[in-house]
Amino acid sequence: MRKMMVKLDNSPYPNSIWFTNSEILFNRKRTELTGKEPLLHPGSGICSRTNDCGSMVVGVFDGQAITTVHEISHAVINVFEYVGMVVNNWTTEAFAYLHESLCNQAIRHQTEWHECD
Asked: Is this structure's pTM higher than 0.85?
């Protein structure tokens, strides 16, 4: 599978969300955004963010849709924290729409990257 990184569209929210299938690219972006040292074994997937949640990088390394769904949920919670919106029954629809959009984008990219082999 090609190792790639893309910026996901999370309009209308102002955050930056990067998505990758590469541990190397994940660690480069993580260090660029947070100044933190690379992670040696980030597992099957991980979401790392800046302290204010304004930027984040999501890495899914096992290619599994369920891992993507899990890690994207962390990203959506970070977006909500950044804009001062709590996750509750009143915001569930906004959460679901953003989660669905980001998952669709990420899974589409994973499929394209896999087909490039």
From this structure: yes
